[in-house]
Amino acid sequence: MRLRAGSLLLVAALLAGCGGGDTGGDNPAPPGATEGGAAASEAPDGKGALGAAPTTKPPASKKPPAAVLRAGNPNGKASVPAAGRAVDTSKPDRVVGNGTPASCTSKAVVSAVAAGGVITFSCGPDPVTITMSQTAKVRSSVRKVVIDGGGKVTLSGAGKRRIIYQNTCDSAQGATSGNCTAQDHPQLTVQNITLADGSSIGVDPDPEVTNGGGGGALYVRGGIFKVVNTKFVRNKCDSGGPDLGGAAIRALDINNDGPVYIVSSTFGGASGQGGRCSNGGALSSIGVSWIVLNSLFSHNEAIGFGANQAPAGTPGGGNGGAMYFDGGLFTVRIAGTLMERNHAREGGGAVFFVSNDRTGSLRLENSTLRRNPSDKFETLPGIFYLGTTERPAITGPKPS
């Protein structure tokens, strides 16, 4: 249909009066806006007065609220059980900072984590990065540690050090009763925070664990552990070694073998933001069960070579671009999760899962795995699997 010149002018005028521009679906509506986004203008009698002059001065422009962290797979629809949900932090035991960025220091974080309890941050209205000059270490006698960044805090290892460490078998963190690997505490929760540029390269491995290195951002041995709405970027651990792994997280000897919950969290997320390690560019464990819900793993890499039975002249490793799981009887469930553009130099571009006695199992539920190259071997696209069944149980999209 062709419009006459007069009609075009009328349409233009109407569009100008309606605002016509793209407001951006993620931006909050202005104060007083209706659900549809149009501001309500009312006369003193409460009736709409289209075109009437305002009776009060418009509110002074305010600085838009600082962005709050949004992590995970926005399309993930997996149900989250109570055990995997964020902890209530409305009544914190400790607050890092007094309302200014300068008051939020590495020393304050280290002290708060050692003391334990529910920890929040007061660093001002804007996002803040706290560069850690020391690793924050959890004391083994503490019952609960909750680290909640409120969506605005980044803890950075500056590419030099691990960020958070929990190990109930490390006597330096306090004595434990009985078997150090069978402790139901500390109960560590990390939520609403970003952990960036952590590194365990060259860190002495746990002396009681063969190839116990890894965990560039987080190393957890013993107790209970979960992650909710957290982002991991540019973390790293040693580049060679069989079983050594977890650029973001290394988990061992979790109470009752887990599960460890990873909920609505991001590992990598964009080119140059992923983790790099010998095995498991994001996660790594031996004999630990996991439940991974509504999360995103992308651009993570397993960079070792020689796989687990490393031939002479090779360091070993290169398995599990994003996730590396080994051991005997353990289970892994991945639901509502997107995994793409992860890479393994050997096997399992996205997931490497080996149950040595074939008693363990892997389940994928309504998750998307795509473009996760395995340079040497795989059972399915992006997956290497040895478990109780011939192949992992998959509902929803097939890996591609």
From TrEMBL:
InterPro entries on file: Pectin_lyase_fold/virulence
UniProt feature, compositional bias: Low complexity: 32-43, 52-67
Residue ranges of the region described as Disordered: 23-99
Protein name: Right handed beta helix domain-containing protein
Species annotation: Phytohabitans houttuyneae
